[in-house]
Amino acid sequence: MSEQKTVTFIITRQDHPDEPAYEETFEIPYRNNMNVISGLMEIRRNPVNANGEKTTPVYWDMGCLEEVCGACSMVINGTPRQSCTALVDQLEQPIRLAPMTTFPVNRDLAVDRSRMFDSLKKVKAWVPIDGTYDLGPGPRMAESKRQWAYELSKCMTCGVCLEACPNVNSKSDFIGPAPLSQVRLFNAHPTGALNKSERLQTIMDEEGLMGCGNAQNCVQACPKGIPLTTSIAALNRDTAIESFKSFFGSDQRI
Amino acid sequence: MAGTRGYVNRRLHSLLGVIPIGIFLIQHLTVNYFATRGPEAFNAAAHFMESLPYRYVLEIFIIFLPLLFHSIYGVYIAFTAKSNLKNFGYFRNWMFMFQRITGIITLIFIAWHVWETRIAIGFGWAELNYQLMEGILTEPFFFWFYIVGVVSTTFHFSNGLWSFFVSWGITVSPRSQKIMTYASIIVFVALSYVGVRTLIQFAYGV
After folding, report:
1. What are the DSSP calls for B29-40, one per residue?
2. A34, A106, A138, B181: which could form a disulfide with A88 (CB 3.0–4.6 Å)?
3. What is the reported pLDDT for A4?
4. What is the pLDDT of residues A42-72, one digit of tens each?
5. Which residues are CB-neighbours of B177 under 8 A, at least 6 positions away?
6. Single pTM value for the model
7. How far does the CA of residue A169 sit from the closest CA of chain B (Å)?
8. B76 CB within 8 Å of a chain A CB
9. Cβ contacts (< 8 Å) between A79 and chain B: which residues?
10. Residue extents of the structural domains in chain A
11. How far is A228 from A107, CA to CA, in rounded Å?
12. Residue B116: which CATH number?
């Protein structure tokens, strides 16, 4: 080989949350088995763009590097996904990196996903067991149900489903599929089910379940393969029953 | 609670699209189909509908009020979506966008259609009979305007029926939703045939 193979990245950058975005191209030496993050690390090591000008290192977020923390999500060649599992060999070049548009940009590729964590608080995505005395062991969960619930628990709040959803945008307050599916997860838990109605009430508004328009991009985009649209349809059924109960009254409310 | 109104509005929007508007659509297309049996059959069927007891009550509560709510709230829903078909060209995403586009087309079509027929008849500018529709549809522009309007309406109804089943939690599993997709395609083809066949009858007399 006479000349060295290179990888080209075109990166949408932003120096400050309030400053305009701009594109910068980088050409870095190719190595075997590179992922997007190792490419970004190479740019950090030698922050010189394709024109040979010295620039600031590209900033991005990362954590686990094995697709379980969700921190390194970004839009890679138009698709929102984790940059740790985006292998350079499988990507079309030039590789275009951009921050997810659904979230406010902190700097370059790092976004602020606070809205997702706020949504988890809104929908009470936990099992309340704190109290003044020991409640003892909870009821047993069937193994088959545990395995099923485990799939829902794989959500890492990465934000890809929000990015894929046409109804999550600046014109709507829709919280997106991820926190909705968590309502189903915690309602399925035998102890969590004690607060089922309470949790359902939190999503019975336009920002919640009613924001869904059934475009079903979320289930296609989810890197963890969570059945998000099944969760939403199941919650549609649960909230329909819940609203009848709360409107007409019921002898079976919890 | 601030969100309750939004919740009720969405539920109402979903319900009204099928009951009563969807049912009315099927009835309306069916009665019009009498035209294929000739002008007399159409006039008799139209006259029967026209002379139903407490007709204004039926029209207001089964047609006009639900239609107004569904269309005004629907325009709001349509304009809060932001298309991302370029990066997510999945079948359901296309249907999602078509549902919003056909909603707007259908609204324009129905507004014109109601003005030209029901309102014109109400003010005595026109008389409800076979000749009224024949007069409109023999003009090529309006024939195609009606073809687009009717097919857009039947699409909006059939695809809306699919989302109605999801929105009320009737079809939850992916398999049930897939079967419902096929069912909604059959509904779309069947209703479009009924509608278009009637239009051809009025326009070309065959």
Report:
1. HHHHGGGGG-HH
2. A34
3. 79
4. 999 999 999 999 999 999 999 999 999 999 9
5. A229, A233, B162, B165, B166, B171
6. 0.93
7. 7
8. no
9. 87
10. 6-111, 114-248
11. 30
12. 1.20.1300.10
Terminus-to-terminus CA distance in chain B, angstroms?
Answer: 58
| Alpha helices, H only, chain A | 36-45, 114-122, 143-153, 160-164, 177-188, 196-203, 217-221, 228-248
8 Å CB contact of A217 and B77:
no
Closest by Cα among A10, A56, A161 to A100? A161
Please report residues of B whose CB lies closer than 8 A to that of A169: 80-82
State what percent of residues in chain B have pLDDT above 90.
96
Asked if B82's CB is within 8 angstroms of A233's CB, the reply is no
DSSP state of A170: T
- CATH superfamily of the domain spanning A6-111: Beta-grasp domain (3.10.20.30)
- pLDDT per position as a tens digit, B47-76: 999 999 999 999 999 999 999 999 999 999
Residue in the block written with tokens 């509904």: B187
Contact check, Cβ <8 Å, B6/A206: yes
Q: Please state whether beta strands A110-111 and A105-107 pair in parallel, antiparallel, or not at all (unpaired).
A: antiparallel
CATH code, A114-248: 1.10.1060.10
Instruction: Name every chain A residue with its beta carbon within 8 A of the beta carbon of B174.
Output: 227, 229-230
* A94 cis-preceded (ω within 30 degrees of 0): yes
Which domain does B37 fall in, by range?
A: 3-204
Q: Which of A61-65, B2-6, B156-160 has the lowest mean pLDDT?
A: B2-6
Question: How many domains does one find in chain B?
Answer: 1
Q: Band of the pLDDT at A254, cuts 50, 70, 90?
A: low
In one-letter notation, the amino acid at residue A175 is I
Chain B contacts of A210, Cβ < 8 Å?
6-7, 10-11
**Size of chain B in residues:** 206
CB nearest B169 (choices: A78, A171, A233) = A233
CB of B88 within 8 Å of a chain A CB? The answer is yes
The pLDDT, as a whole number, for residue A253 is 61
Is the pLDDT reported for residue B187 higher than 70?
yes
